[in-house]
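W.,

You were right to be curious about this one. When I first looked at the sequence I had no strong expectations either way, so I just let the prediction run and decided to look at it fresh. Below is the sequence, 179 residues in total, followed by the output.
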Amino acid sequence: MPVKIRLQRHGRKGYAYYHIVIADSRAPRDGKFIERIGSYNPNTNPATINLKFERALYWMQTGAQPTDTTRNILSAEGVLMKKHLLEGAQKGAFDVTEADKRFATWKAAKESTVVKTKDQLAADKQAAAKLRLAAEAEVNKAKAAEVAKKKADAIAATIEAVVEETPAEEEATEEVAEA
């Protein structure tokens, strides 16, 4: 029975997330599976991956073949690296403690790059928000200046109307006084 490590699609149209499963290669994509070893959500930035590391390593050592996408996921999580190191230890290139030490240093470097990427994304998001806020403040200033100009024009027009009416009233009062 050829066993595959592959993705099983879930979610709604346009917003898919995936379960990482161990399945017979002849089973349908979303059909029967042997074991669920994790999940993958590409909708977040960076993509969220939850993986049962030991079970994935077990199935890789047993001979399960990952699909292209799951191979990339397993590689990013370090399953393929750990498998490679353990095979080296079995062949006698180094011992298991050395393999664990090498894997720990690799994992620490990988996590630091992920944290750095997340921090950079957060900083970019804050910078974009500040730019939007500054642009909105400029637009609001322009609108306030325009409204103030309209109000000043309206007040000036009202004053002109009052000034024009005032001499006519004064003339009318002078005519009445003369008569």
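Here's what jumped out at me. The radius of gyration is 36 Å. And, maybe more interesting for your project: Residues 127 and 133 are 10 Å apart (CA to CA).

Coffee later to discuss?

I.
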